[in-house]
Amino acid sequence: YEASRYKVSMNVLVVGGAGYIGSHCVRQLAATGHRPIVLDNLVFGHRGALLSEIPFYHADIADDEVELILKNEKIDLVMHFAAFAYVGESVEDPLKYYFNNSVATLHLLRSMVRCKVMRFVFSSTCATFGIPETVPISEDHPQHPINPYGQTKLDVENALNHISRATGMSFAAFRYFNAAGASEDGTIGEDHDPETHLIPLAIDAAVGKRPHLSILGTDYPTPDGTCLRDYVHVDDLSRAHIVVCDKLNTPGTQLFYNLGTGRPHSVLEIINAVETVSGKKVPRVAGVRRAGDPPSLCAD
Ligand code: UDP
């Protein structure tokens, strides 16, 4: 993704650009000759994940200020990474998820339409598929989410379809599988609070920051009894965002992509990989299944 391959430089508003996937994407946008401008409310994002020269607005996507930013910065395209993404929490507090992930995104889209910013890249999720009927999961697999988090993302996908037809907005919706990894220089990576994701928790257990890792279910109908997931590197996810920038120039374009590797790995395989790389044991205990976890998710 050298800069020379991308001839048109865009002003890209990266909403949630101080978060995990967003911050990696900001780096690639800058490296490929685009001009990223970040908007983040810093509820989960980290200001330190961004270089000081990146224009930064500490704001919320539902704020009126967004329209001023879209106009003043002459934004060509919006990438929207800002969302709450804890499946369990979404079951306990659905209103929080509907307001933040669905309603706030509609505010952002309305601001874009008012300002005639007509290119949008949306972070959707494999959680929109629910328990898949067939694995690997293709883009046209039926979407029946089993938790509010997945539903709020699907609601936005559906709204985008209608908004695009009515206004000519062009968009790409990326269904992420399991984002993993850190930038190669090690300066940014996964940094959630609270942390609930397998790989950072396994690493913490290996280096003694946590007493052990709980394996959340050992009786799934999979080869080793633990869940299968498609872990895709955060820089590969980011690359998809760069590639899609120049595919949104025709009004009304609608693109849906599953972003994964097509290769599933079990929880035990991830633990083994952490042990191999670190040379340390990962102390583990067998725990119960987590509500809302499908046995196997893998992208086609
Ligand atoms: N998992 C686990 N122990 C943990 C956290 C996660 O066994 O402490 C399992 C979880 O059940 C799932 C896989 O690891 O099968 C990936 O979970 P993660 O939370 O990283 O991502 P998700 O699939 O929920 O997006």
Low-confidence stretches: none
Integer-rounded radius of gyration: 19 Å
Order of helices and strands: EHEEHEHHEHEEHEEEHEEHE
Q: Any idea what the shape is?
A: globular
Percentage of β-strand residues: 15-25%
Alpha-beta content class: alpha/beta
Q: Count of DSSP helices?
A: 8
Helical amount among residues, as a percent range? 25-40%
| Straight-line distance between termini | 23 Å
- Count of strand segments: 13
The profile of the biggest β sheet is: 7 strands, parallel
Please give a handful of descriptors for the protein shown:
single chain; 300 residues; alpha/beta; two-stranded parallel ribbon; 8 helices; globular; binds uridine-5'-diphosphate
Descriptive report:
By secondary structure, the chain is α/β, with parallel strands linked by helices. 33% of the residues lie in helices and 19% in strands. The protein contains eight helices and 13 strands. The strands form four sheets. It has a seven-stranded parallel beta sheet, with helices on both faces. β1 (11-15), α1 and β2 (35-40) form a beta-alpha-beta unit. α4 (94-115) runs parallel beside α5. It binds uridine-5'-diphosphate (UDP). Uridine-5'-diphosphate is lined by residues 87, 178, 196-198, 201, 213-217, 227, 229, 267, 290, 293. Residues 87, 178, 196-198, 201, 213-217, 227, 229, 267, 290, 293 line the site of uridine-5'-diphosphate.
What is the strand and helix layout of this fold?
Blueprint: E1 11-15, H1 20-31, E2 35-40, E3 56-58, H2 65-72, E4 77-80, H3 87-92, H4 94-115, E5 119-125, H5 148-167, E6 170-176, E7 178-180, H6 198-206, E8 213-216, E9 228-229, E10 231-233, H7 234-244, E11 254-259, E12 265-266, H8 267-278, E13 284-287
Parallel strand pairs: 1-2, 1-4, 2-3, 4-5, 5-6, 6-11, 7-10, 8-13
Antiparallel strand pairs: 9-12
Helix pairs in contact: 1-7, 2-4, 4-5, 6-8
Uridine-5'-diphosphate binds next to helix 6 and strand 8.
